[in-house]
Amino acid sequence: xxxxxxxxxxxxxxxxxxxxxxxxxxxxxxxxxxxxxxxxxxxxxxxxxxxxxxxxxxxxxxxxxxxxxxxxxxxxxxxxxxxxxxxxxxxxxxxxxxxxxxxxxxxxxxxxxxxxxxxxxxxxxxxxxxxxxxxxxxxxxxxxxxxxxxxxxxxxxxxxxxxxxxxxxxxxxxxxxxxxxxxxxxxxxxxxxxxxxxxxxxxxxxxxxxxxxxxxxxxxxxxxxxxxxxxxxxxxxxxxxxxxxxxxxxxxxxxxxxxxxxxxxxxxxxxxxxxxxxxxxxxxxxxxxxxxxxxxxxxxxxxxxxxxxxxxxxxxxxxxxxxxxxxxxxxxxxxxxxxxxxxxxxxxxxxxxxxxxxxxxxxxxxxxxxxxxxxxxxxxxxxxxxxxxxxxxxxxxxxxxxxxxxxxxxxxxxxxxxxxxx
Length: 422
Ligand SMILES: C[S@@+](CC[C@H](N)C(=O)[O-])C[C@H]1O[C@@H](n2cnc3c(N)ncnc32)[C@H](O)[C@@H]1O
Description:
Elements: H1 9-15, H2 20-26, E1 34-37, E2 51-52, E3 59-61, H3 72-75, E4 79-81, H4 88-93, E5 100-103, H5 110-119, E6 124-128, H6 132-144, E7 150-153, H7 157-163, E8 168-174, H8 185-203, E9 206-216, H9 225-234, E10 238-240, E11 249-250, E12 258-260, E13 270-277, E14 309-313, E15 316-320, H10 322-326, E16 333-334, E17 336-340, E18 347-348, H11 350-358, E19 364-366, H12 368-375, E20 388-392, E21 397-404, E22 407-410
Parallel strand pairs: 5-6, 5-8, 6-7, 8-9, 19-20
Antiparallel strand pairs: 1-3, 1-4, 2-3, 7-16, 9-13, 10-13, 11-12, 12-13, 14-15, 15-17, 17-18, 20-21, 21-22
Bound molecules: S-adenosylmethionine.
S-adenosylmethionine (SAM) is lined by residues 86, 104-111, 128-131, 134, 157, 174, 176, 198.
């Protein structure tokens, strides 16, 4: 039971803020709607006025009545619906092509897809999550965004850290948290303990001089500034870095972290801090390099120039970065599953058709209006002679057109069909 003379944690936090009443009124939302734009899938169209998210170069605030699922851009992966605050941690992590990055609480994948797109077609992204059903959604979201560098592993974080200490250039801990729910002090304390354990396990994955971003979508100081302070107090080999990002507030302790507030930035309440492993500790780093699969398959059938590796397992064909192909971890998803079969009987997966188009595979151009009709399942009379990949005029990758002369339909499963898109 909470003591009678102690205010519940949210009220206590509000009383410490100059705009505490506005905070309490805004903390449960609704928040400003935002999207993140894919770097290689064209320009979003038909959204009306959008406003740049100050701290996220690929982030845009949309109008509040724009539901992303109603837009073709969402289905073509041209955009990813993501709260503006949730885009901040990856901006602070700043993944670079060629790096090894681990996202330890990755599902459903908003930040993993953002990391994967920052890596491009070089490097390795390892995605962990404790929840198998959430990992399935994560794998699909990575596929839908065409991320070729990712390995989704069921390996628990503490085992990964035991077997491969110091293997990562950068690690993200987007921790489970209390969100904006009203919680008792006891509940918040328990959550903070869990977060501290995860942070400690994750820190062992970082190489000397590497970086770690810790973030939550809760305003509770106990789960934010206090977790980072407790970690630093018991880990002298680590330091907090001073972060600045346009339009953001500093943390509540002046310790270099960042805060976003619903009553100020209009996003959900958010905390992020960047920590650096100092060079002093002698960490024995064990890399994630494993066996390189025999190439076996030529990606050049679709793409003349790509740095991706292509390999076959049974009748399934995959493409991915060399690091993802050879990563030593057990995996539930790895690179892009291109499709199944051989030669003429080879069937391309819809998400991979989009990923190939995005990477420059030859594709016919259809109008936005025709693309909407094709996505709804209509057959169209198009001026093409044989099955082909298709994209929209604004660069959105549509998929593969199948059929016969004069009548062409988009080859996607019925569960993906949508009518009335904009
Ligand atoms: C805040 S959500 C992550 C959101 C995700 N980063 C995104 O941007 O889409 C926290 C995640 O942590 C996962 N989780 C909880 N405990 C965990 C643990 N011990 N190890 C790994 N993942 C854990 C949960 O299943 C949940 O998916």
